[in-house]
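Fig. S4 source data, part A: sequence.
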Amino acid sequence: MTQAITQPHPRIETPPRGHANELDFAAADIARLRTMIVNLCFVGEPGNWVLVDTGMPLSGHRIERIAEDRYGSPPRAIVLTHGHFDHVGAVRKLANKWDVEVWAHHLELPYLTGRSDYPPPDPTVGGGMLARTGFLFPRTGINLGDRVRALPSDGSIPPMPEWRYFHTPGHTPGHISLWRDRDRALIAGDAFITTQQESLASVMMQEEVMHGPPMYFTQDWADAKRSVQLLASLDPEVAVTGHGPIMRGQTLRMALHWLADHFNEVGMPQDGRYVREPARADHRGTYYIPPPVPDPVTPMIKVGMALAIGTVLWKLVAPRSRRS
């Protein structure tokens, strides 16, 4: 495992919120935008910046507007921490409009070139509404064609020369986290997050809590634990995660080390489909999915949702039928 870096912790000045209060800043050149349930980052200065992740579907117009108003030009590239639907929602639209390359880890490429789908989410873990309705979330791969590029194996990020990446699998096979040495800034993706993503109430309130990766979509818990331990060993000064508020300073480091030290108890579910056995993947994509665990609750939720939708439709259609 990578050893902890022992340089003194630099002080990162916190700029004010910007762009009509849409952006939060981890540093002067790292802006976080929240799109519904997920974060993305604008990294760099006007004329020389990179977009990290692209948020939820239908978020493209908002990203374009901020890019034009604040940065005045398209980014040099788009970098993806991973390919889950909430991180690549606008990637095809933006990459085509801006005519830029998309960079990702080579083990994530099968899900970005249409060759493979992700394993199904596990609705039995986490206990919250978002976890329980995870079966609604898309898991199919997308096809970016020749726009997507594999990141070099040496950890460098060609469009971000000040940054390097760490391979932090577990949530997905090719998940990465981005790191900058000079100010110890971390863009963690979903390797760990800072809100309880399984709970709709926690997500809506953006309650700050150190948390492992979103439970319902994590497919290898042993890898996820090692990834959290790796990132904790870096002792970051500030972290932007895929879900939740920015964390910084001693509060961040203490919470992250606590998560790494107690991951089995607090970072992962006690049981679940991928706790019992991980999904397996290679450069071709997913090749093994373990059987689901017994789950009497999800079928009842599906029936309840179907009845609710049916009731709404009936109330819309019935008055028209009576009038006819």
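Fig. S4 source data, part B ends here. DSSP finds nine helices and 14 strands in the chain.
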